[in-house]
Amino acid sequence: MIACAETMSIVNLHFQILYTMDQEDLVPDTKVQSLDRTFNILEVLAREPNGLTLAEVSTKVALPRSTTFRLLSVLLQREYVRKAPDTNRYRLGPGIIELSSNYLNNLELKTESAPFMRELALALGTIVFLARRQGDMMVYIDKQDQFTSLRKYAIIGEQRPLYCTALGKALILDMDDETIRNLFSKTTFQQFGPHTHTNLDSLIRDIHQSKTRGWTYDNEEAEPGMNCIAAPIRDYRGQIISSISTSWTLDSRPDLEPGKVAVHVMKAAGAISAAMGFHEKR
Asked: What structural domains and CATH numbers belong to the chain?
């Protein structure tokens, strides 16, 4: 399953809602009922740009004011709803905007990157990946190779540590040393391959080298016998929003040289970035 950040937010929200219900609400279908009621409230507020009072929300969703108030309280806490202090009217909050934005941006990114991922895969005869960052992990959001089968979707949604993957390191390429140290302050560095970074200082030295050349390299760090080259993808603000990579096994593709592969990967990353609105300053 895709462990997206927005999905986890909704799950946490739902569990909080369950605990706001009165004992008389605890019927066999309580969980489904509570979720249904919550979404009814959100849908009602979505149709009311000027907001609604507690009484109006209660009437429209046909719930007691006490139950409506408790559900709204959870939504307020999670910022899916906001309340105007002067009018006491409830409206959709920034939490909803964030979820929608993440969803739409992800769709746009995958749509814009698809032709360049295919081009890269065909040019090198390798597998191409697209990823986003989630905390100190990266998550695969798309994959492209020369085979058309259900295997394409097998890895999508899986997570890997940032510190041992080219995709992950590309996602933190703009971070300064202090930010990187804070990000990995609670991370245990595990050995996945013969060259996996086992401490922060080693990782930071790698990031410094990668910043200079503009691309990242996984030389048997995530898995023995595997190489991977990645580059960051930027949006119209110049911020890194994703990364693209290509991977190959050393024994099957001894002809591939990291530096030459990086030229193709950076070209694809640059094209996708341009499609996302990025314009490099000259």
From this structure: 5-92 (1.10.10.10), 103-275 (3.30.450.40)
